[in-house]
């Protein structure tokens, strides 16, 4: 199965804030960006038809998904099918840190997470307690491991359903509209890019890329040493 993955277009983003799942408004440049995204999708499809369109529930993705699904220029590929909302395509979950100014987050807690973010969960712990020497899993957000496992679960689901569908039709293509963090996870799971290299990949607003889903990934490889990360 082949998967075309699209990052949402530009948004109005507040400076200095921890932003993952906040439902940010689209930039006023959307009307200019949309035709560029559509044309990139048409070029990558090359006449192939699509079996599924999945989108993050956040409006910056669902708006783009709806416009693509209804665009007459894509009727040959999508046949007017509506996009399916899937929470596994959501951006990184910062938990109780979401929307806060980075400078207002407890510096000790933030430093601990940034040093252990592959396994430690973002956000404040649900209970009181103190951090130990082991990566803390009690934050109310996600760790990189959590995010990679949910994206891997989506990939396994797509791979399984593609196998079932192949018996009835030859559409073996899906379109995903999502966020930079999810796309970085796909680079790791499907292209085997080391975790240490994920955040050097440029994923611009409206970026369109194709991935091959020739196998069902079981999960992340988090053994590499990494200093820090930031989801967009």
Distance between the termini: 27 Å
The number of helical runs is 6
Query: From the helix content, strand content and strand pairing, which structural class follows?
Result: alpha/beta
Q: What is the beta-strand fraction? A: 5-15%
Describe the protein in words.
Residues 223-232 have low confidence and may be disordered. A 5-stranded mixed beta sheet has the order 3-2-4-1-5, with helices on both faces. It starts with a strand and ends in a 20-residue tail after the last strand. Helices cover 33% and strands 10% of the residues. It is built from 6 helices and 5 strands. It has a domain at 2-92 and 143-212: Rossmann fold (3-Layer(aba) Sandwich), CATH 3.40.50. By secondary structure, the chain is of the alpha/beta class.
Can you tag this structure with a few keywords?
disordered C terminus, single chain, 232 residues, Rossmann fold, 10% strand
Helix and strand arrangement:
Layout: E1 2-7, H1 30-45, E2 52-55, H2 59-70, H3 75-78, E3 84-85, H4 107-116, H5 144-165, E4 173-178, H6 180-191, E5 208-212
Parallel strand pairs: 1-4, 2-3, 2-4
Antiparallel strand pairs: 1-5
Helix pairs in contact: 5-6
